[in-house]
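SECTION: protein entry
WANTED: fold as tokens:
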Amino acid sequence: MSDNAALTNAPELTVSELSGALKRAIEDQFGHVRLRGEISNYRGPHSSGHCYFSLKDAAARIDAVIWKGTFSRLRAKPQEGLEVIATGRITTFPGKSSYQIVIEQLEPAGLGALMALLEERRKKLAAEGLFDETRKKKLPFLPGVIGIVTSPTGAVIRDILHRLSDRFPRRILVWPVRVQGETSAGEVAAAIRGFNALAAGGAIPRPDLLIVARGGGSLEDLWSFNEEEVLRAAAASDIPLISAIGHETDWTLLDLVADLRAPTPTGAAEKAVPVRAELLGDLADRARRLDAAALRLLDRRRADLRALARALPGPESLLATPRQRLDRAGDRLRASLAAALSRRQLALANASRLLARHAPHAEVQRAAGQLNNLAYRLGAARGALIEKTGERLKTLAARFGAARFASQALLRNDLRAREEKRRALAARLDAAARVFLARRREALGHVEKMLAAVGYEGVLRRGFALVRDAAGAPIRSVAQAPDGALLTLQFADGRIAATAGPPLDRAPAKKRAAKPPKAKAADQGSFF
């Protein structure tokens, strides 16, 4: 009885209360831990953006979760089978009665893990062709603007600027970034994309060459330049890019993607521009060689010209014959000019005499006199013509009145004669028409009687029918009506449609004896 009473006095807890108490106890005891283990059952981020997987070692396993916001900030992303050191807090998940670690920071466990991850990433990008030599761009011989992606406070930028100023001063654009840390990869990738996004001819000049530089360090320090984000931004760059990461023995995946790898940042400056003094010396040497070559060519041309001149005839002998032809042509030209001038003077004198006889003012006066005479004669002729025309019109009017009266009398007499003749002809035509119509009616009656006697309508009235096919043609035998043919049967009082069936009986065709040809009947003429 006492044991049962002790049990009944224990406080009752709900499942949620117990889960909450366990959660608080575990979080108080293990608020912040660092776990070393191998990632297992990793399938990438969930559709919500969170990551769920397990950390295990040889004897145990623990569930792990990385929230979406933390995952985007991680420098090292989780991968299946990778040994890592996870930093976070231990908590429980009441829905499954299990405990888990919420990871806040993740890093590979040791140099071996980083090298394995680096090798795996190298193989992946090599398979995609990011390291192919065919896609690498040629560096400009003398870039006008050089863009540098590096830390603005380190010794790297000073070394690059100093070496550029010594070799060949160029315009420099520096894009300040962090070269180490969690945000380093994103800043470097953004700088490469930003330089490529500059428009040519804009307020900020677009670089002709990019240099991504950093000083030496360990593999962990240089890890930002092994991130896929940086490598893909460098591969997509339209501007040629030089990788100058670390010292000569340091190596990153960016060296394989870049168009050229420099062993040091100072070496990148040396590969970016030539030595100005060497160029000037080479240019002066080439100028001297060009001048010497020009002098030698000029001497050779002079010698050739002298040799050719000796083979040519002298100017006097060349010009002697043309001079004689010119003199003779000059003499002929003077004579021709004198003769032409005489002819022109004679023609001018003749034209002057002709023009004197036909001076414009004399011609105008003569034409004015003729015009006045014609105007006077025209006025007199017009008056006489009007008077003569009036008298003629009076005579014609009198003659026209008499003729019209006589013509009207003749027309009236002719009209009376024609009317009497028309009446006689109309009477005769009426009589002839009545006789003609009577004869035609009589002939038509005979034809109607004959048509009624020989037409098929009379036969139809006696109980027969006329069979036609679908086209309306008469059918005279069973062979013309195959089985299923559409027929039209015409009776005396109308037509009906029918369909031909199989023949009920078919009489054998009888050979008819040849009849002697009938004598051709005499032509009886037409009823009409």
Remarks:
- Confidence is low (pLDDT under 50) at residues 519-524.
- The longest helix spans residues 360-454.
- DSSP finds 13 helices and 13 strands in the chain.
- The longest strand covers residues 83-93.
